[in-house]
Amino acid sequence: MDRRKAEAALEAILFAMGDSVETEKLAAAIGQDAETTRKLLGHMAERYREEDRGIELTELEDAWQLCTKKELYEYLIRIAKQPRKIVLTDVVMETLSIVAYKQPVTRIEIEKIRGVKSDHAVNRLVEYNLIKEVGRLDAPGRPILFGTTEDFLRHFGLHTLDDLPEIDTVQMEDFKAEAEEEIEAKVEV
């Protein structure tokens, strides 16, 4: 393996790992001995310094890590402090509504209400920390029970779940009738 390819491989490994990686492991990965690998890494570290780049290669007790240069932290902080934007699609909102009003609720119960698989929507809500596991149902397979989180309350400006709007029973019956009509239309096709 030539020097450029070896350095590219080291850079790729260190970038993907995020944490420090021992010289011995890096050497094994690129098929070189530890001393040759140290020289390659030293050359790379020098190049990062000379080229006025945003990252540097740091050695930590015979391990190496790609890091943001200290003098550029202020720019990194500007992004890191920005709240992550949560995108709630109609499917995700529908799933969240079911959890909010029916909690604790299992994924199977959500799917029964929605009439379709809800894995993606449930996973997205867990990722956004709007719902969480609140226990297990005492039934075969011990399915996970989901409920809303404090972030859910914060996100929607609620103090407690009692602040959720009441469901209009007449409107609910209309929704059920529409859903049943859609199901029948799909069956006929």
Can you characterise this structure?
This protein has 189 residues and is of the alpha+beta class. Helix content is 55%, strand content 14%. The protein contains 9 helices and 6 strands, in the order H-E-H-H-E-E-H-H-E-H-H-E-E-H-H. A hairpin with a 3-residue loop joins strand 2 (55-59) and strand 3. Helix 2 crosses helix 3 and helix 5 (90-102) packs across helix 7 (119-127). The protein is elongated and about 75 Å long. It starts with a helix and ends with a helix. The mean pLDDT is 87.
Tally of DSSP β-strands: 6
Low-confidence stretches: none
Main beta-sheet strand count, sense and barrel state: 3 strands, antiparallel
Helix content, binned percent: 55-70%
Mean pLDDT: 87
Structure class: alpha+beta
List keywords for this structure.
3-stranded antiparallel beta sheet, 189 residues, single chain, 6 strands, alpha+beta, elongated, 14% strand, 9 helices
Short description:
The chain has 189 residues and is of the alpha+beta class. It contains nine helices and six strands.
Which secondary structure elements does this structure contain, and how are they paired or packed?
Layout: H1 3-17, E1 21-22, H2 23-30, H3 34-50, E2 55-59, E3 63-68, H4 73-80, H5 90-102, E4 105-106, H6 107-114, H7 119-127, E5 131-136, E6 144-148, H8 150-155, H9 169-188
Antiparallel strand pairs: 1-3, 2-3, 4-6, 5-6
Helix pairs in contact: 2-3, 5-7
